[in-house]
């Protein structure tokens, strides 16, 4: 019976599978890691979460003999679940840095999403899927949304219809899942798809558990707009790690003691927001720019605990850069990011260091490949790297007054200025830099960022709405997803940002922390306004 609770996991160490481990444990199962090909052949049930890029994954599978073991395991029709790249590797080949040969079990070539179809790449976020064939593990999904994050996808064709069990529409129809006998694979991430995702895993792990009622028929949807809860975290003067919240980035109370505003405990709040329906949770370690994050063990602890109970994506930012500690030991930004990923982050977010990287790139016109942004996205993929921008509005009489891109503003400045540019800052808004948000966004997209978290210091904590001019400027300038941030004060601010700009997600902090507006009300309002959301 003990054996019944064991799941064999093929983790070749290329990235973060902590979320999946957490989800499996949460469901009451134990994990046995594959060490050698025989472990695959001896598995009772096998999960293969593909992470990283196609070519290095195939390399490992070929070199270790695990590829061969996988093929015979699957050919014997034994219980298998591939996730994301774990689905793609089953196909003949991939165009990712290729063509590169895959395991060749399913006819078809994995190709990149085409952004000329009007979609942003990577495909990040929540989509409903169209179930084409009874698939047992998908029986609870119906028309609910699941979480995707990928730039490549396999397409259905006459040659692989016998495998395809659902499709999803994003620019074109791609394969969302396959099933043949006991062999399953999904392009989305069940471990990050909330309750609905956990039910997919549960059904795979325990196929006899619930024989269902007739499965609800899923209908493909548009990509849902995401609502993200953000926790700005720092140590207060007593040494406790707290969730704080600034007014235009000033997080101290305006009292005699001048203490750091304390809005709650990070792990508790993250768990609460997950239950309330947040599509993602972000942690920003806001003093990471001066305190080395790997020295900040409580923050890593927070991540570890939060990720045990939060089954939607977690992003962590603050202090991602190269660093030499007091003992002269050097840490690369990649090591810092790796520790964040190991501790439970699905994406990392880079602020200050991305500004320096973009300045350097614009000056030299060459990609050095050495910036934290480039290194981390090369190893973990673009979709795992967010760049957080902290711009401040600078009003202008005439756009010709600066070399940076400006925009006409909806509300004129204090002296009747009709234009503004948005100056990037570093170190938590403390220092302005000679680069605009527009220039930065375009540069970091080229350097490998997968997403932009667009704050605005002027609007932060004001509750008067997002800076629509800024968000429009940036979301029209890049083809990666843009998260609108700073200024949400009412449900109408969310529908405004989605109807007036091309933002893919809207983030808020203060209104959620102060319990002024529940996440559920935001979603209900968006739904009423005809905006696709995950309910
Ligand atoms: O520069 O790589 O170490 O990263 C530091 C990170 O910390 C950056 O992402 C930066 O945005 C963030 N940060 C630094 N100082 C502050 C601060 O507030 N003093 N917080 C800070 C950024 C802005 C948002 C906030 C939204 C929504 N906070 O995170 O959550 O503005 O707030 P609202 O809904 O209440 O208006 P690095």
From TrEMBL:
Positions contributing to L-glutamine binding: 84
Coiled coil (residue ranges): none
Region named PRFAR binding: 351-352, 388-390, 460-461, 486-487, 509-510
Residue ranges occupied by any Glutamine amidotransferase domain in the UniProt entry: 9-203
EC number: 3.5.1.2
Keyword Nucleus on entry: no
Residues that hold substrate according to the record: 319, 455
Any Pfam family: His_biosynth
Localisation per UniProt entry: Plastid, Chloroplast
InterPro entries: Aldolase_TIM, Class_I_gatase-like, GATASE, His_biosynth, HisF, IGPS_HisA/HisF, IGPS_HisHF, Imidazole-glycPsynth_HisH
Entry annotated with the keyword Translocase: no
The entry's keywords: Amino-acid biosynthesis, Chloroplast, Glutamine amidotransferase, Histidine biosynthesis, Hydrolase, Lyase, Multifunctional enzyme, Plastid
Active site: 84, 189, 191, 232, 390
Recorded GO CC terms: chloroplast
GO biological process entries: L-histidine biosynthetic process
Pathway: Amino-acid biosynthesis; L-histidine biosynthesis; L-histidine from 5-phospho-alpha-D-ribose 1-diphosphate: step 5/9
GO molecular function, one term: lyase activity
Reaction(s) this enzyme catalyzes, per UniProt: L-glutamine + H2O = L-glutamate + NH4(+); 5-[(5-phospho-1-deoxy-D-ribulos-1-ylimino)methylamino]-1-(5-phospho-beta-D-ribosyl)imidazole-4-carboxamide + L-glutamine = D-erythro-1-(imidazol-4-yl)glycerol 3-phosphate + 5-amino-1-(5-phospho-beta-D-ribosyl)imidazole-4-carboxamide + L-glutamate + H(+)
General function of this protein: IGPS catalyzes the conversion of PRFAR and glutamine to IGP, AICAR and glutamate. The glutaminase domain produces the ammonia necessary for the cyclase domain to produce IGP and AICAR from PRFAR. The ammonia is channeled to the active site of the cyclase domain.
HAMAP family: HisH (MF_00278)
UniProt family annotation: Belongs to the HisA/HisF family.
Name under which the protein is recorded: Imidazole glycerol phosphate synthase hisHF
Lineage, broadest ranks: Eukaryota, Viridiplantae, Streptophyta, Embryophyta, Tracheophyta
Name of the coding gene: LOC105176677
